[in-house]
Amino acid sequence: MLDPKHAPKQNVEMYFEKAKNERLSLVKATQLEEETKKRLSALQKTKEKLIKAETTDDYYSIMKELKINDDVKKKPDNDIKNKFRHYLVEKKYHVFVGKDSKTNDLLTLKFAKQNDYWFHARSVSGSHVILRNENPKEGVPKNILKLVASIAAYHSKAKTAGMVPVSYTQKKYVVKKKGMEPGKVALLKEEVLIVEPEINKKCEYITD
Fold it and tell me: Which of 107, 103, 125 minimizes the C-alpha distance to 117?
């Protein structure tokens, strides 16, 4: 309907402008819809990552992706690592050792990943020891497992014994049952190595 207050030419210009604005609004709405779809898809992928996350490091990485906390610049595992003794075996394999029952739980239940290797001297009190397994498909050589088992024996009440049996398994087979005391866990499966308690010269001491 023409507006009698305006000349015909002005009416035409007004209708063209209105139509232009409506087209722009439609384009913006379409773009917004596409952006929303992409956002929802990204959030779904993030949700899947959260479900699969194993450590606080994984959670913080996801937080950074979502920009939930832009101040998070340092990986949280760096903070957690400071709570454990840290060795580097043959300049390649990272080994972490709990200092008490509290840090044993933290090391095994929060820090360790599913395919990492867990060690503990059998039938005696001692530290939980975690061997990072960076390449699960490649596996860890038996000589490395023995070196780490020796570290576990050394950080136990059997430190002064001649030869010590040490249980080891992947972290995914280590469980904390309801009611267990701090530092106590159960193993779903295990293997045993008989080793001498020592810190071999091939094991570089990183932090206490």
Answer: 107
Q: Which helix (H) or strand (E) holds 63?
A: helix 56-66
Sign of CA pseudo-dihedral 30, 36, 39, 43: negative
Cβ distance 98 to 107 under 8 Å?
Answer: yes
Taking 3-state DSSP, the helix, strand and coil percentages for the chain, each rounded to the nearest 5, stand at 45, 20, 40
pLDDT for res 78: 59
Q: How much is the pLDDT for 68? A: 54
Domain that holds residue 101: 83-207
Token pair of 79 as six digits: 């903070």
Residues 22, 94 share a domain? no
* Residues 93, 191 within the same domain: yes
Taking the C-alpha atoms of residue 180 and residue 119, their distance in angstroms, rounded to an integer, is 18
Residue 76 within a domain: no
Q: Read off the pLDDT of residues 16-50 as tens digits, 9 standing for 90 and up.
A: 677 667 776 676 777 777 888 888 887 788 777 77
Pair of tokens at residue 8:
């015909």
SS3 40: helix
With CA atoms as reference, report the closest residue to 96 among 151, 137, 146: 151
Task: State whether 100 and 167 are in the same domain.
Answer: yes
